[in-house]
User: Fold this.
Amino acid sequence: MLNYFILIWLSAVLLSLELSHVAGTQVPRVRGVPISKTSLYDPERDFECLDGSRRVPFNRINDDYCDCGDGSDEPGTAACPNGHFYCENAGFEGLFIPSSRVNDGICDCCDASDEYASSAKCFNNCHELGREARAEAEQAAELAREGNQIRLEMCVEGKRLRGERTSNLAKLKADYLEAEMIKKEKEMVKNQVEERERLALENYKPVEAGETVPKSSQQPRELEAGEYFKILDSDDSGTVTLAEIQARVIFDKDDNGLVTQEEAMYFLAKRDELNLDEFREKAWPNIKPFLLKEENILPPASEFLGGEHAEIQHRGGEDHEDHEDHEDHEDHEEHREHEEHDEHEEHEEHEEHEEENPEEVEIEKEQEPEVKYDDETQALVEEANEARNQYQQAEKNIMDIQNEIRELEGKVERDYGPDEVFASLDGQCYKHTDLEYVYSMCIYGRATQSAKSGGSEVYLGHWSQWTGIGPKKYTEMKFEKGHTCWNGPARTATVQLRCGKENKLISVSEPNRCEYAMIFTTPALCDPNAEANNRHDEL
Ligand code: MAN
Assistant:
């Protein structure tokens, strides 16, 4: 009896499996529905609209009348405005198209299934398209493989660079300490020599305001007064008179072109005339600072008082200073207008200009050594100069090392991506030229734009950070704080990075004013494990 029941139960199970198998193969495919959704269209039951809004008898599916609000009862006709038709496209990729395109006379599906009842002559070319897509995918995979090889080399180089930069940094820090010590030594030497120099130069301190003459030249100074006296005493009368002073335009203190009696009296210490001794004692203290003030150095008497003409010419030059300045200005203007002058002409012009402008000549004269030191002092001054130079050099050396340290620290702390893959690109610049501009993008550096027609370079910004989202962090980088846009914000550039065998800036556009979008290919992104390269995996 038990055996009988077991037999019946077993037969029932086998029958249901058979039935479901039959049902699995026999349920007709509903036109426009992908296999994954076939179970929702069961001919044994009423159809429930996929949005759940209503139920309709199964025979209303694809009857060319729209029953469901979501168009799900008419996937294979154009009856519903919002329905979707699925092309199987065997051999290529399945595709949903709006069901309104079914039988509209245009071939949308490569298997021609959307034009099943139209006069359009559609051919099934899915296999051909599939072949092309597979070849493309193969090429992309090949690219990814080759790119990946280069990427791995970049990682090796990146790690080497990190090691090198880290050890250079340690070395530089040691150099810095040594340079600091050298600087201290040089400073000590400098201070000692400068002290000796200072003492030696005490002897050369000016005895009168503005005067810098060595003590050892006291005698010549006395002689100078006598020399000037002789020249001023033009009638050899043994005295210098007010009239003789007034005859020298050099004594025109207020530059009005005339030496007044008052001016002459100032120089002659309110006397009408002075003999040599009086001149030395009373007049020379007024005359000498005046000559010094005018020339900063005491000119030999013969040069300025040697002859009326020499003197007058010199003063005349000064009198016309404004006028010459004006001409000079015009010269410069003209020069700017004629920039095409060749170098030779410019040189000549410069020389002429120097001759015409006594002020410049005098500035050069001022730079000439004014004081002649004795040999011992001169040697000390030279020794002190050398010590100062060496100290400055030591200071400069420290600054250079500090700059190098700063630069290296920046690199050691920088985000070079996974396995230091971008490290070798630091500082590398890439160019892209379009119809109007030449763009340059330096990784971790600057981005610029130069108009082909000329003009100055426009700064698009400095590298700021990686801006890709999540695992795609290293697929986008940003340059910020470029030149300000006319009446707008500072320029910025966003660079999208893609896998490519070459590091190459392949395109630049300006989707919004002063916001630049660049595409850069690089082997650094040819990582088979990275999500970014999975585009063709679906095929
Ligand atoms: C320049 C260029 C352009 C930019 C305009 C904005 O011509 O930098 O790219 O759009 O300035 O004024």
